[in-house]
């Protein structure tokens, strides 16, 4: 008997994480439908997949109903970088909440298993370190980050209500800062900013005094965690933290990027954004125990691979623009 390929929907599939996920699923032999409105995603991210008969891309905004037949759904659609999710905060909340309702409704109709890309932002500016899944968070509900944080919190609520009320098979991952090739060069996140600045010889912009920490996970490690969570037994619903437990101060990251790029960039201090969490680091005990998962890529190795990607991207753009490196606008 031949094994029938699974039909997998990836919303936000043309984004940074989504494109890596689509690649892994296609390589695994699944039939992948990538749905994206291209707000922060790019066709370039999935260009190599477009000729594959197991891959299909559809322009669609998940705040509108979607009628397709699939076996599994990964719901990743939502801008993830603060400058992008704050650009149109009402749309961010709609994407998180109405988008989740639409995708959960679809999952219910076609009896699909559904994965939600939640976030460490549900913990807000945490008072407990590292953050376990049982920590309920410290989120400002009316600040500039709230459209994202509260939108994602409400999406988690919806996932668990559909689980209890409609017996849906759900998986909820709380993703901590992840980086790697295909991050948008202009997306304002710290890793992409520092690498692009270092490669251009521009000053690295540290917000505040740089003592705030994040824990940076390389994209390949994270995607492995997604796949393990989706394949886990149905009682493993999450929420489950996925991230690298190695905590790094932002100033330390800047020094490392300068060293790895061999750049002569200096460092400049900029104001700290409102509600910027002081410290963030996952407790991944559950992921280790339930998924036998933990990151294996060191920060140095992951940064080197990301630097190589941006170096190539910027030289290509530089060549296209007569040697003058100009970053794309979004
Ligand atoms: P990204 O911005 O690169 O990708 C998001 C994708 O969703 C983009 O392709 C965008 O065009 C698409 N999108 C946005 N709104 C949409 C809508 N209404 N309809 C259809 N498509 C839409 O960001 P990413 O880093 O790849 O993040 C993917 C998911 O993972 C997001 O849900 C994000 O909240 C979550 N996450 C990411 C991180 C991280 O560090 N990268 C951390 C925590 C959570
Ligand atoms: N940050 C910084 N310089 C930059 C971009 C970000 O110092 O050019 C800081 C930011 O203030 C935060 C940390 O780096 O403390 C991580 O920011 P990012 O936007 O990547 O993710 P998030 O705040 O959502 O964790």
Word description of this protein:
It is a single chain. By secondary structure, this protein is an alpha/beta fold. It is 38% helix and 16% strand. It is built from nine helices and 13 strands. It has helices spanning 16-27, 82-85, 89-110, 146-166, 190-200, 219-231, 250-261, 285-291, 299-320; strands at 7-11, 31-36, 55-59, 72-75, 113-119, 170-175, 178-179, 204-207, 213-215, 217-218, 240-242, 247-249, 267-270. A seven-stranded parallel beta sheet has the order 3-2-1-4-5-6-11, sandwiched between helices. A two-stranded parallel sheet has the order 7-10. Strands 8-13 form a two-stranded parallel sheet. Helix 4 links the parallel strand 5 (113-119) and strand 6 (170-175). The longest helix is centred in the first third of the chain and has 22 residues, at 89-110. 45% of the residues are buried. The structure holds nicotinamide-adenine-dinucleotide and uridine-5'-diphosphate (UDP). Uridine-5'-diphosphate binds at residues 82, 177, 189-190, 193, 205-207, 212, 214, 250, 273, 276. Uridine-5'-diphosphate binds next to helix 5 and strand 8.
